Amino acid sequence: MNKRSNLVYDYNNLLDWKSIDLSTNNLTGEIPQNIVVLTGLLNLNLSHNQLTGKIPFEIGNMTSLESLDLHMNNLSGTIPQSISALNYLEVLNLSYNNLSGSIPSGRQLQSLNDPSIFSGNPNLCGPPQENGCERSGNLPKDDDNNYSNPKLAGERDNWLFLFIEFGFVVGFLVVFFILLFQRNWRYTYFKMVDSGFDRLYVLAALATKRMREQRT
Q1: 122: cis peptide before it, omega within 30°?
Q2: Homologous superfamily of the 11-139 domain (CATH)
Q3: Can you tell me where the transmembrane regions are (predicted)?
Q4: Other Cβ atoms closer than 10 A to 23
């Protein structure tokens, strides 16, 4: 699909497209996730727009892609590992976005050994960039990483709540048994509680008296 054209296509026609060039069109929003169904597409150029969000996670399904140009947008998140499945990719440009994490590895990606492909993304790490992921600490945290796995996150939360509840029960039992067997401590504790209630009662009485005086 070329720019400066006004054409109407149905879904079946979309599957026959070989090229999409929508560069420099002031496009906003996210790249549609279902664009990955265009498995016969050879060229995709969405550069020089204002696109946000993440690169479609299953972009590796577009196995026929020979050229992918997404530079000069506001894309964020990590580069999907599935991009390494694009075995026919000859041109790639992801520069000047807000991408982060490690750059995926793959036979075809390694043949595109040009750092400028990823330039302008300071939070990217790994070859062909000079900064290594271990040195910079920019380890990926996308859907391929256990840190963002909802199941594992839920398990960690469950353990955290379990330890909190266990600590509360242990603390309560310690105080209970101390008061049960230490008469002096029990006397001091209840005396302190009574004194606290007395202070609250006095404060409440004074506050009530002041409110009545203000009304009169």
Answers
A1: no
A2: Ribonuclease Inhibitor (3.80.10.10)
A3: 159-181
A4: 16
**Is the separation of the CB atoms in 83 and 63 below 8 Å?**
no
Torsion angles phi and psi, residue 110, rounded to 5: -65, -25
> What is the distance of C-alpha 182 from the center of its chain?
53
CATH 3.80.10.10 residue window(s) in the chain: 11-139
What is the rounded CA–CA span in Å between residue 61 and residue 38? Answer: 8
Rounded to 5 degrees, what are φ and ψ at 98?
-120, 40
107, 133 Cβ separation under 8 angstroms: no
Give 104's DSSP letter: P
In DSSP notation, 22-82 reads --SS--EEEPPGGGGG-TT--EEE--SSEEES---TTGGG-TT-SEEE--SS--EEPPPGG
101-143 pLDDT per residue, tens: 999 988 888 888 788 999 999 999 988 877 777 644 444 444 4
Instruction: Give the pLDDT confidence score for residue 5 in this predicted structure.
Output: 54
- Residue 16 exposed, middle or buried by CB count within 10 Å (0-12, 13-18, 19+): exposed
